[in-house]
Design goal:
The protein folds into 2 domains: 62-238 and 355-447, 3-Layer(aba) Sandwich (Aminopeptidase), CATH 3.40.630.10; 240-352, Alpha-Beta Plaits (2-Layer Sandwich). The protein is 38% helix and 25% strand. It has 10 helices and 16 strands. α1 (11-22) runs antiparallel to α2, α4 packs across α10 and α6 (263-281) packs antiparallel against α7 (319-339). It starts with 10 loop residues before the first helix and ends in a 5-residue tail after the last helix. It binds zinc ion (2 copies). One zinc ion (ZN) is lined by residues 152, 154, 187, 219.
């Protein structure tokens, strides 16, 4: 059953049958027609609204492309999104949104669009930052900031959110509830020593006054063809924890290892032993990745090093698995070091992201809306991934879903992965994204509206 569209009063049918018994034959068809009209009026209204909305988005096509190109040409790194923030705030104010609060979590923005009818508050989140990557695309809208590029599609996310704000603000007379727009900086991680991102947005009240009942977001996916939206119910993206290991031995001549403690050998054993967390210590059906990604130690071929430093990342889809793996890393490193007479310490980065878990009920309730906008073939199940997204912090507070927005177009050569110098997005995805998200938010509000 379609939880968003089922507005037909079930008692209509009973009423109709009773009337039919009383009426003469000639009046039955008229009654049937009138009753059908009455019972289906909300559905017809929704269809009409959907058509008007699609037309409104089509009219925005050029300005959406221009807006995305502007963001793309002037990308800014995490916690440095000053211009980006100014452009967004200006646009939201020009649209006449009820509240536009800037300076949330440094350059973040929280804005509220209140509808004329009573109903729930629902949130839409878009992230704002770019990456330290030199663009190699030869396009008119190539990055004007050397060494910085929107290589994760956040320019698309912001443009779609602004498009949704524009379309829905023009429909506020029929909006049952309010939409809260969250423009969030530093999704890719604030510079060392700085704090920002989703958790700070929350700490600074982004989810209060009013508190949204649900939150949605898109993330672009270049592996998904433009015109399609992908979904995962439950764990969709992984937790992310970075670890730093320091193994301290004792320096000695390389020809006399017994006079020292060799931290290189200890580090090598640690690297291998840590893989046994995945292979021997955890339930094999639980996703977990542990990668040691850097090794630094020693400075000459004939001297045993006094210290080796390792860095790496731990990814899981489950908080309990994550906690247990964190404990095992400490245990294994301490055990291996002790077995060799070395010292070891393990430190975890303060930037720690929980798994992105899409609320299964909210996903289920959203699918009919997505299918009405894109058709059945346009809404596809996606595979969970071990990448991470700080959207997860919002989902710890309220039910939330992040959908994948298809931006790939192999026929036009648009297929480069996220976080690469060649990454690009098919701009048709802007129109698709605004249509899908506007309808989804409206359908959500309509289905939870009070006094309808
Ligand atoms: Zn990214
Ligand atoms: Zn991203």
């Amino acid at each position: 059953m379609d939880p968003f569209a089922s507005r037909v009063n079930p008692s209509c049918r009973r009423l109709l049958l009773r009337w039919r018994a009383r009426m003469n034959r000639r009046s039955v068809p008229i009654c049937l027609f009138l009753a059908a009209l009455f019972c289906h009026a909300p559905v017809l209204r929704a269809q009409d609204r959907r058509v008007r909305l699609a037309q409104a988005v089509e009219r925005l096509r050029e300005s959406l492309v221009a807006q995305r190109r502007d963001f793309h040409m002037y990308p800014e790194l995490s916690n440095r999104e000053e211009r980006t923030s100014r452009v967004i705030a200006q646009k939201l104010r020009a649209l006449g949104l009820d509240e536009v609060r800037t300076g949330v979590s440094r350059h973040g923005i929280v804005a509220l669009l209140k509808g004329a009818r009573p109903g729930p508050v629902v949130a839409l989140r878009a992230d704002m930052d770019a990456l330290p990557i030199e663009e190699t695309l030869d396009v008119p809208y190539r990055s004007r900031h050397p060494g910085v590029k929107h290589a994760c599609g956040h320019d698309v996310h912001m443009t779609v959110a602004l498009g949704v704000a524009e379309v829905l603000s023009a429909m506020r007379g029929e909006l049952p509830g309010a939409v809260k727009f969250l423009f969030q900086p530093a999704e890719e991680g604030a510079p060392e020593g700085e704090d920002s991102g989703a958790h700070r947005m929350i700490r600074e009240g982004a989810l209060e006054n009013p508190r949204p009942a649900a939150i949605f977001a898109f993330h672009v996916d270049p592996m998904l063809e433009v015109g399609k939206v992908g979904y995962v119910a439950g764990p969709a993206l992984a937790s992310s924890d970075t670890f730093f290991i320091r193994i301290v031995g004792r320096r000695a001549h390389a020809a006399m290892p017994h006079q020292g403690v060799d931290p290189v050998v200890v580090a090598a054993e640690c690297i291998l032993a840590l893989q046994s967390i995945r292979s021997r210590r955890m339930d094999p059906v639980e996703p977990l990745v542990l990668s040691v990604t850097t090794v630094h130690g020693g400075n000459r071929s004939n001297i045993i090093a006094d210290e080796v430093r390792l860095e790496g990342t731990l990814r899981t889809h489950n908080e309990a698995v994550r906690e247990r793996a964190i404990g095992l890393v400490r245990e294994i490193v301490a055990g291996v070091a002790a077995a060799h007479g070395a010292q070891a310490e393990v430190r975890w980065s303060a930037r720690s992201i929980p798994p992105t878990i899409n609320d299964p009920g909210l996903v289920e309730a959203s699918l009919p809306s997505l299918r009405r906008t894109l058709g059945h073939a346009g809404v596809v199940p996606a595979r969970p991934s071990m990448a991470a997204e700080d959207f997860a912090f919002y989902q710890k507070q309220i039910p939330g879903v992040m959908f994948w927005l298809g931006v790939g177009n192999p026929a036009r050569g648009i297929r480069a992965a996220l976080h690469t110098p060649e990454f690009d997005a098919d701009e048709e995805s802007l129109v698709v994204g605004v249509k899908v998200m506007s309808n989804l938010l409206l359908d959500y509000m309509e289905s939870h509206a009070t006094g309808r």
